[in-house]
Predict the 3D structure of the following.
Amino acid sequence: MDLRRFAIGVLILALVSGPLVTAALGQSRAAFVPLLVYRTGPYAPSGIPIANGFVDYFTLVNERDGGVNGVKIAWEECETQYDTKQGVECYERLKGKSGGAVVVNPYSTGITYQLIPKAAVDNIPVFSMGYGMTAAADGRWFPWVFNFPTTYWSQASAVIRYIGQQEGGLEKLKGKKIAHIFHNSPYGKEANPTLEDLASKYGFELTLLAVDHPGQEQKSTWLQVRRLSPDWIFMSGWGVMNQVAIKEAAAIGFKMDRFIGNWWSASDADVVPAGDGAKGYKGATFHAPGTNFKVHQDIFRVLYDKGKGAGKKEAVGEVLYNRGIVNAMFTVEAIRTAMAKFGNKAPTGEQLRWGFENLNLTDKRLDELGMKGFTHPVKVTCEDHEGNGPVLFEQWDGKKWTIVSDWIAPMRDVVRPKLEAAAVEEGKKLGYTQRDCSKEK
Amino acid sequence: MGALGAVLAPFAEMAASPLFLAEVLIGGVAAGLLYALVALGFVLIFKASGVFNFAQGVMVLFAALTLVGLMDRGVPALLALALTIAVMILLAFAIERVVLRPLVNQAPIILFMATIGLTFFLEGFGEMVWGANVKRLDVGIPDTSFKVAGLLVNRLELAAALTAAVLVTVLAIFFQKTRIGRALRAVADDHEAALSIGIPLKTIWVVVWSVSGLVALAAGIMWGAKSGVQFSLSLIALKALPVLILGGFTSVPGAIVGGIMIGIGEKVAEVYWGPLVGGAIENWFAYVMALGFLLVRPQGLFGERIIERV
Amino acid sequence: MIYREAGQFKSTYASDQAIFPIPQDRVFVLLVAAVALLVPAVASEYWLQAVLIPVLVYAMAAIGLDLLTGYAGQLSLGTGGFMAVGAYSAFKLTTAFPDVNIIVVFLASGLVASAVGIVFGIPSLRIKGFYLAVATLAAQFFLVWLFNKVAWFVNYAPSGTITAPPRSVLGVMVTGPEATPGARYLVALILVAVFALAAKNLVRGRVGRTWMAIRDRDIAAEIIGVRPLSAKLSAFAVSSFYCGVAGAELVFLYLGSAETLAFDIQLSFLVLFMVIIGGLGSILGSFLGAAFILLLPIFLTNAPHAVGLKLPVALAKQLELMAFGALIVFFLIVEPHGLARLWQISKEKLRLWPFPH
């Protein structure tokens, strides 16, 4: 009987006190960034390096520079396990904390779609760097959402341009067979319309192969690849789908240097299980891998040598770790841009939105940050929240990723009109109106 | 007429390139055997204790994580294997003591729910101890293919197929010929009658959960070698469910036959009919196929006939 | 002392058969209702958005599954699929007929889900037990695949997701980004209260009794004249109706937008857990189970903060999972018939209070 009473007591306590214990911190001078991470669960191998990159860069800015113009960055990690509901719960819990969140990086397409409508109501900009809703790149319809330096549709067009380069010119693509293996979700399907347009424009034969979530077993897909014998394969995968795909490609003896993964399918975790079989596998990216940059040396010197690093020292320079650094860097520079206009204090969400929208990251500034050659200069404008960034291609040599191409520009003439049409549709669904950028100059 | 033609066209395709069809069938058998390995664990536990072990998928993951975790820390492969087997046996003891014994007479659905609690626990525990990163599992067999009579055969899958065959044979002998096997079958038949003739229920349960744990380890090794050892391994259990329906929840040979049938059915459907409807039909096709068989034989092909008394 | 029936005599059949026959019960329920209605005035946005609204939405789904599994004995794992049907049909209906009241749209989407449920319930006439559960998975996977594949369901949106358009009821915005959490909470509350009452009456009546007869001894039931076809299919129909409305609520009142991944197998399992933990065959149990499954993880996430423990998020999440699993096993050992039975026992104890027995 005591056990039962105890059980009832625990139950009531749990049900009642759970949400009550969300403490709220007082106002502080720091700029607060909630970090939605996934360090556990099915996507942890990808989520851990990204989270560490973020934390390391923010710590670096606080320790090495004393913050941004004296204002420190404060953050709090919240585990979402890449689950939309947990992501929404994290957002709701943290958005008002420490004086209010100034920006949110959802790091999941599902969570991004949830937060986009809330952004305008809560006045917190959503920075979905290279993922999320591509149509949000039209800032006239989505003033609160940013996805620079480049989007999925631009990436698809850049991939085709790269393949064209490798084949000796875009005209040589006629008659070639290109397969797109994609995760059977809205994320995976993003590139399809663009690829179909380019297929009819350049005359290559496009085959679309969907892989059902989670993609643990892909025998039938790769049997079809064997039957098709495509010249090139492009993959929009995520999680275990990537690892299995690379293994299967190696198992059937596909030429790995003709297999290109998008920027969420070409990271260190993805090539680990395949071992030597993954040699030659290529990936798209918008920043360099590795640690050959001054910013990494600073991270080692200021953080890891003093035991303040977020993760393991060997993991610094991984593809997704650098992704986290780039994301954090863009955030910090946007804060700096906002401060230049609104003064040296922690910006409000509205002010940071302006900061993002007027971000102009030049080569010179990248050099100052110790990131010369690490990523491409980017200029965000009111109409263009994409920055129309170019894409780099990297290749795995069995031990590390190296860059094997120049910056490849996307085909803006193909992508932008479709993007604008999509923005109208998605914006109208949410009841938005198009704003006039010239009025805001 | 056009639709009918479209549906029948793949048959012509099959006839046109029989070599490719053979490869699809081989691929189906290979995949099916891998499903069957996971399904075997379910069957063992259901057969002997009437519990549908939702945690089987997580046990596969946990076993693989333990093995890889030990090997990564420098333990030599055979010793790591032995230690992992010991861990799975210990786990069986713990489960019997903590979960099964207190719930001994409850309805099957309550035990099912308890295994769900066990799933969450093992998920968190496994990740906490061994970390959430993807780990490479090298079983010494390269994941490459060689040609046999013009067909591409994968070495790793061949090894998995042989493992499954060996396991099934061993288990079949175990159940039919050994004393403990007979005791297991007695317990599966009627708990109370088995108790009344002196069969120790607790020991039987520990044995059956241990054997299931070993089967999970085998499945974990095979699947982990194919995709790296990571959380998604636990989702394999879902792929094994159609195998269970088709083969019957209580039959060891049923798991294998069911696995092969589901594997072949899935692959053939996906490769030949999938492109007609945009692909990715494998998942639900496997279930629909199993459902079709169930309508003819409601207890699965090899399952025990359910005798109901009014 | 307080909770006694002494002195209360029923003089009509109606008063004897009431759901809450004792005035004390009625007062208690009215108090709960009053508190529930007044909550938006005092609760923070986080409470409403992340805690209360999901509990109400999932409670609706749990009631649906409870009717099917707890009362009719048909184990079903297709809940996610039926909720998806409700959500997508609500989306199509409201975008096609924007002037129709959103509540009517919810009910219509429930009817669509009902029809789909009848179709996928047909195997239950031949298959039983865990086999049926796995067979309903066919429904789950097929429906999710269908909504993924056929772009018509998302109105050909490039994003592949459905978004709740702004709609209002009685002049108050209840869906879309402008709707306040309080308004959405009230809609969810009223819907679930009405439908819970309907479910309670359904299970007390003839239909419910045929379900329970099928659940307990289906061959004997058939012999005495209960028709299995109509009983089982009606169970699927009503259950899918509830799940469909819950699915529509999930997208329109809680999430705001969704892709098919929100309705996958994990959702089916989640609702099943709620029903089992709450107590099979109990309407109150559905509410308690939904609250338990949703609130416990939030409590476990925040507990370390409350006692001042700063754990790294990964470790905290893993401990949370372990604690969640352990607590499920613990509660099942303590009370295998679920939380509803715990509630019943406490009421019985209250009848004797302050005497121990």
Q: What stands out?
A: The longest strand of chain C covers residues 172-175. Residues 22-263 of chain C form one domain. DSSP finds 14 helices and four strands in chain C. Residues 315 and 321 of chain C are 10 Å apart (CA to CA).
